Amino acid sequence: MAARAGLTVAGCVFLTGLATGPLAAQDGPDLNGITAPSIATSLPYNADPGGVRRRLSESGVTYNLIYTHDVLSNLAGGSRRGTVDQGKLEGQLTVDLEKLAGWRDLTFFANGFLTHNSGRIRRDYVEGLNTIAAIEAAPSARLSELWLERKFMNGAASLRIGQLTADSEFFFSDISSMFLQTDWPTIAAANLPGGAPAYPLSTPGARLKVDLTPQATLLLAAFNGDPAGPCAGDPDTCNRHGLNFRLRDPALLMAEVQFRTNQGKDDTGLARTLKLGGWHHLGEFDDLRRANDGTLLADPAGSGVPLRRRGDSGIYGIVDQQIWRPRGAGADEGVSLFGLAAVTSSDRNLVDMQLNGGIVFAGLVPQRPNDRFGASVVYSRFSAASRAFDRDLIALTGLPGDVREYEANLEISYVAQIVPGWTVQPDFQYVWRPNGITGRDARIFGVRSIVRF
């Protein structure tokens, strides 16, 4: 009921927005319909000898194709050694409905994925919690987002309604985007039903964005709270093609406020972005230690049925801080640090704290201004309740076992631009205590290639 009520209110706001005045112009692709960087700019006639892409763009229709390919090997540790070959082809379609049909200030967007792999490095070889390669997903052709966006308040606000993902706008560091392990944070993916609406899953919802000032933005969203539904396996196998369009699950609510300074190309000060946010899920969650009859879940004499708890909430903060900016450089060049911290309640969540951090060096080689190098760390702590359950199980059954404390990942990576729109990225990762288990530290090496068209 809460999810349906939230979407109804959002729909009323959307209809109200249709009656508002004209909006400011929106940045978009170039006159040829190409969104930079694109390998098309390095090909004869921009790979559009007949001018079809340019004419579509003149009518308000633009598209992008992005192919990401990984070859990753688990060299030691984890559950077993081995190599995976995986790829994701993403298609994006954007339609300016004012240009196409005269419907002022409306935009339509859709994207989808075609994924393939010979196995999954995190699930099949390392068996950890934290992301190792963010494109990992079950092989499938899948619809992702499908929405309409209406801008109002002279372009200072916008409302999206349709099938959405949370990770496209919430809960991420911009500076960290170069890393393979940068993904929807583990503290949400491991705790929320279906991992929440984040790659590769999406769900119906509504998002309101308001620019409070030129430097401050507020994001609010209500999503259907379970993108997969009841599922015995991985959530993405239960909504394999992104067509479930679930509407009746308890809602997931999110809010984030963003503050930005020195983001312009002509700014000379150090760039900074600060994000503060949180989430609240309206569903019910299993207690990880207590049973519904007052016993411990690990007690063989108890009911073994978890106590149910209402709702689940968390808060987070993210900072991207440039610490050295060469003369004439942009906000994403030079040397930058990033950090993320998030906490949630312990009694109903597998992970109750996550810390991410890293450093990125960008544009420092004169002959290779678009290359990047960096290191990133992800630390996920198992909750007090899950650790207590492990201790209870050992004490009450006499069976040997591990008390899961944390999982931590280190990534060192270099992104080399071959031509605009094509990068090659050698990558090394070390995983301490996959899934909290000692003696299984994993070492992963691989190469990623991304082609944008």
Question: Key terms for this structure?
Answer:
disordered N terminus; Porin; mainly beta; globular; 16-stranded antiparallel barrel; single chain; 453 residues; 7 helices
Summarize the structure.
The protein has helices spanning 2-17, 52-58, 97-101, 121-126, 186-189, 235-238, 384-397, and strands at residues 61-76, 82-96, 106-117, 140-152, 157-164, 203-213, 216-224, 251-261, 272-291, 306-324, 334-344, 351-362, 372-382, 406-419, 422-432, 442-452. The chain has a single domain, classed as Carbohydrate-selective porin OprB (Porin). It is mostly beta strands.
Overall number of domains: 1
Strand content: over 45%
Strand arrangement in the largest pleated sheet? 1-2-3-4-5-6-7-8-9-10-11-12-13-14-15-16
Question: For this entry, what is the oligomeric state of its chains?
Answer: single chain
Radius of gyration: 23 Å
Distance between the termini: 42 Å
Kindly report the name of the CATH homologous superfamily.
Answer: Carbohydrate-selective porin OprB
Helix content: 10-25%
Largest sheet: 16 strands, antiparallel, barrel
> Helical region count?
7
- Mean pLDDT across all residues, rounded? 92
List the helices and strands in order: HHEEHEHEEHEEHEEEEEEHEEE
CATH class reads: Mainly Beta
CATH second-level architecture? Beta Barrel
Unreliable spans: 1-26
Classify the fold: give the CATH topology: Porin
